[in-house]
Amino acid sequence: MSKKSKTYFESELDRIYSDNSLRPEQYVQVRQSKAFMEKFYSERVELNDLAKAAFMSRFHYVRVFQRVYGLTPRAYLRDLRISKAKTLIRKGLSVTQVCFDIGYESVPTFSSVFKKCTGYTPREYRRLHNSNLE
């Protein structure tokens, strides 16, 4: 019988769990905070609150999160919001509506972050997407 090879994801999980420098409960706490961000990305998510819920200082929480996911919590939340914004823009929502729906409080801030992440302003992205549909 041949042994089934592991997927990349399974290999990465094995690598993470074999690293003894982090306690298992830290993985659980960081995964829970990531799930919280995915559920409440449109709300005001504060780093101090995430760290406190994970029973870590904010600095240690950022280090552990980055070690597990390869991104800081702030970068993860930003990327998550921009991904949701792309979906909403493709659905035809206004830039202002998208901005507030994904948790930004300022349209100029949202537009500059969107452009930094995608290379397009939200309006350019909509135009590009609409022209690809025709």
Description:
By secondary structure, the chain is mainly alpha-helical. Helix content is 71%, strand content 0%. It is built from 8 helices and no strands. The chain has helices at residues 8-18, 24-39, 47-53, 58-69, 73-90, 95-101, 107-118, 122-133. The longest helix has 18 residues, at 73-90. The mean pLDDT is 88.
Short description:
The protein has 134 residues and is mainly α.
Would you count the extended β strands for me? 0
Q: Taking all residues together, what is the mean pLDDT?
A: 88
What level of helicity do the residues show?
A: over 70%
Largest sheet: none
Radius of gyration: 18 Å
Which regions have little confidence, pLDDT < 50, spanning 5+ residues? none
Oligomeric grouping of the chains: single chain
Secondary-structure blueprint:
Layout: H1 8-18, H2 24-39, H3 47-53, H4 58-69, H5 73-90, H6 95-101, H7 107-118, H8 122-133
Task: Supply the key terms.
8 helices; mainly alpha; 134 residues
